[in-house]
Amino acid sequence: MRKIIFTGHRQHRSWLPIVLLLVLWGSQLPGQRAAAQTQVPPPGQRMAPSLPVIPAKGDTTHILTRYFTQATAVRKAPDADGFIQRWLVLEPVRKDIARNNIFTDNYLRTNFSNDNFSADYNSVPKNGETVRVGGQELKWHALDSKTFNFNLYHFTYALNKPRYGLLVWLVTVVNCDEEIRDVRLTAGCNSGSMWWLNGSEALMLSGDRDLIADNGTSPRVTLKKGKNIIRGAVINGPGMANFCVRFIDEKGMPVKNFRIGTNKNIYLP
Fold it and tell me: Is the pTM here over 0.70, yes or no?
């Protein structure tokens, strides 16, 4: 009997440290949850959206309409925060990129120059038009993103195209009723990108970056009365590919008094 009682006490004592650890772990969870709930973005910045769930290998639902709608010739305003959601997007140029920390200024300039769809930075392609870039036949798609950012992973997955190791060209047209002076073009992306306004370089985002709104800001620019052409190029190796673009004024407030893609048939074949 003594042996049975003694053995029982030893068993209880052996479980005691584990029980105490579980109690301590459980008591910390509410505080951790509260801390996570109270995180806020820095002033003037917008936090990137949560990363989407990567489809399982067996997922064959390659559809654009989940995250995008087809653009039309109907006037479209930027969203409530000034982000431009309408873009002409070229199917990805496949690139052999093992890591993203190679995206120096010189690397971006060289690759964007070598794999350029047109030397005319004011050219505006049409929806459905095909071009040959990097030895590949690629098609333009005119799309409106359903979110403030344009997720290139979702775009390439929907088309059953390469999702990693890619270069994607972008074009949109901003129409202004009046000239807008002293604004800045801002962008965020994964991972490297360059942006041009009316044929002139406005902004470069080099290095391995995560999507953060307004991560890069151009010098002061002028949106002229009438048509203004924005061209962009985003390059990425492994990981998510994403971008967002808007204009801000001298106080850092979003510029929204323009329309996107308003020229008749500009996005139609």
Answer: yes
